[in-house]
Amino acid sequence: MKKTDLTKGNVLKVLTALALPIMGGSLLQFAYNLVDMLWVGRLGTDAVASIGSSSFFIGLGYSINALVVIGGGIKVAHAIGKQDEQETKAYINASLALNAIIGFIYAIILIVLGKNFISFLQLGNMNVEKNAYLYLAYSAPMLFFAFFNILFTRLLGSFGNNKEAFKISAIGIMINIILDPLLIYGLKMGVLGTAVATLIANAVMFFLFLYKGKNLLFFDKKVGIAYEKIKEIIKLGFPMAFQRILFTLVNIVLARIIAVFGSEAIAAQKIGVQIEAVTYMIIGGLNGAVASFTGQNFGAKQYDRIHKGYRTALGIGGIYAFITTIVFLLIPNAIVKLFINEPSTIEIASSYLRIIALSQVFSALEMITNGLFTGIGIPKVSANISIAFTVLRIPMALMLIQIWGINGIWWSITFSSLLKGGVAYLFYKIKVQTRYQNDETNPTSI
Questions:
Q1: Tens digits of residue pLDDT in 151-162
Q2: What total number of domains does the chain contain?
Q3: Neighbouring residues of 218: CB distance < 8 A, sequence distance ≥ 6
Q4: Does the pTM exceed 0.90?
């Protein structure tokens, strides 16, 4: 498996080469999510609500995992940019060890405390609560493998090699797509069939990563575990991980508010979020590409190249986000009807898409800018911005539902996204662009 030098060559071509495999992986994941929702949607609103409820706590696990993925990804990219092979191996070792500990502990927590987590949402539907917990318990071992798959993908991105990660992700997603109908309907496992299918797919991906990445993604016993490297990864990854954890906790609180409007509302949000993922299919690829591109170029002190890459990514992302905005505004009902038949759920999900449409460009602006902040080693900036405006969603939602009902929750999400994207860009213009035009090299002072 080869390494790629991101400090040379045409900026657009390099960014495209980095982003396309990530986008391809996101496209496959998006396709899987749509197929999965099509199958689950046939089981009815309660089934969708069960998965939607448990997905908040699965997402919380991914947020915790960001501690390693962000911190390890940044330090490995910087070490590669400096062409320090020994340091690169040390950071990879530390990342793998920390990831194993977090994955194991969180899997145990989900199994032991999963019922309490689901009860917190006060769904008011015993069947939904039962299936939500079972789905969560079956997903616990899946997360252990998934945590490593995400870390492996990020580390390969730091090496500038996203193609192999894309191939492995493609295999995993295809396995998932094939197993879903077989387990849900063939073996009559219902909601649990989706959890088992995802577990099997992630396990296969895990072993493929180990096999294909054996020259890069292995634990080097000669280097061992440097505990100071673990501390550096935690220190660097903590702000972004805390931001994502808080973001997920806010969503859990919002889910409890949404549950007041019934299981149809929970199901509608789940469907709306899956459809909205069409935006992140491309923007997520640009975020990862900008982070890897910026990381290596920052290590090599190529500041002008960093700014060019950022502007290029913004141009691509802005155009795409604008297109999704138009689609969500014009045909939300037609899209939602692909997944569910209940009129009340269709109405709520369509309203979600229309309102969220207004924030798509600003969400893209936030994600791409966060990729740059991550690459230069200041994820705390992204975290601080996100924390401030994400927490604001709760009081805004409580206030706005008095005026617009459940739509007030969707408006609170949209308003906070507008603020996050705008503030992130202003920080880049005022602080980062000016500082690195002057060739200053200490991001921690920002």
A1: 988 888 777 767
A2: 1
A3: 210
A4: no
